[in-house]
UniProtKB/TrEMBL annotation:
Molecular functions (GO terms): thiamine transmembrane transporter activity
Protein biosynthesis found in the keyword field: no
Name assigned to this protein: Thiamine transporter ThiT
Keyword Endoplasmic reticulum: no
Keywords carried by this UniProt record: Membrane, Transmembrane, Transmembrane helix
Domain of life, source organism: Bacteria
GO CC annotations, alphabetized: plasma membrane
Regions crossing the membrane: 55-73, 79-99, 119-143, 155-183
Amino acid sequence: MRHQRLLIQIEGAILAAFAVALEYIPHTVGPSAIEVSFGIIPIVIYSLRRGAVPGMIAAFIWGTLDLILRGLSSGSVLNVWQGLFEFTVAFIVVGLAGLCQHQVQTSIRQHRKVKTLTLLWSAALIANFAKYFCHFIAGVVYWGSYAPKGMNPWYYSLVINGGSFIVTFILTGIVACVLFAMLPTIYLPKDMAFDQQAAKS
């Protein structure tokens, strides 16, 4: 059990670092402020492998590293509260994709491809909606003054964060489904207790 817990923690730390590295890929869509968050993808995959709690811990590490390495130097932090909200809460909730872990793993074992694909898209939706809803709120509360003159801050935040949500959600869903088609066992780590119980039964 202790070995398994350590393995999960190491795996989470590695994927969190990978998520940070992916954020250095240019990810602005066109001339707008709409951005694709590539880092969400490995966190969603990890959350579906290990569950919501490990996923949220890995997402917290990702957010903390992103704050230190990118946020503080890029002007993305306006004050302490905004920084904590957008680089902790908005990142942690990505791990909620792990709420679909048991259903996804059971569906894969039962070879129910259509159901698995639906669940993968659902997990991608949960993770992305939760993250960008936080950014939407922050956009109104903290970034509203940066809206173009005459534009309602709510509308401004909805356009920017809504666009980022749609693009990132679609990318996350596609990658999750492609990985399932190519390597379904990526969602089924053999060291988990779930697998051990299944083997005994």
